[in-house]
Every structure is written in C-alpha cells, then in structure tokens.
Write a structure and sequence with these properties.
This protein is of the alpha+beta class. It has helices at 12-40, 86-95; strands spanning 47-48, 53-55, 63-66, 71-74, 80-83. It has one domain (12-95). It is 40% helix and 17% strand. The chain has a five-stranded antiparallel beta sheet, with helices on one face. It starts with 11 loop residues before the first helix and ends with a helix. The mean pLDDT is 91.
C-alpha cells in the first residue's frame, strides 16, 4: 500500500534564507570586483591565486589579500588578520616594512 504525499506548501522561512544567501553572494561579488580594481591600479606586484592575491615584495611583509571579504593575512607565523578593504590594505602596506 503506497501513501500519497500532500504537496508541500512553500516555506516562507526557507524562501527568506534563500533571499539572504543571494544578497550575501551579490554583496561579496561587488566587494571582490571593487577591491580587485583598486589593487590592479595600485601598481603593486602580486600573484593571483583565485580567492587570494599573494603579495611577496622585497622589503615588505608577505601578505595574502582576500578581495571578497577585504581582509588580509600577514604571514608572520602568528596568523595575524586585518580587515578594512583594499584602500586600508594599501595604506597599511605602504607604511609597513620588514
């Protein structure tokens, strides 16, 4: 004997979370494009590894910048993280030496 399932009613909460997820994805894509554009015009040398831009310049600290979040990690053995976007990174990177 098989049971027939009733058609499910749309779950309002699920639809709201789908909308939140879509908005978050769009916001991160916008940040990614803005941060990448700022860093491309900065003239600094970096290696593009997809989700991270690796800055390995002599006389400067070794850093990984994440354009989608605007955070950067300093490879100093402590895992120091900073946030603030591309402009804040450029300001920090310009005044920091090894």
């Amino acid at each position: 004997m098989s049971r027939r399932r009733r058609p499910r009613e749309p779950n309002v909460e699920t639809e709201l979370w789908r909308q939140v997820k879509a908005e978050t994805k769009a916001r991160h894509a916008r940040w990614h494009a803005q941060n990448r554009a700022i860093l491309e015009t900065s003239g600094l040398a970096y290696t593009d590894k997809g989700e991270a831009l690796l800055f390995r310049n002599p006389g400067k600290p070794s850093c990984d910048f994440y354009p989608s979040t605007g955070r950067w990690k300093v490879n100093d053995g402590n895992g120091t993280m900073h946030r603030g976007g591309a402009r804040a990174f450029l300001t920090w990177y310009a005044r920091t030496t090894v």
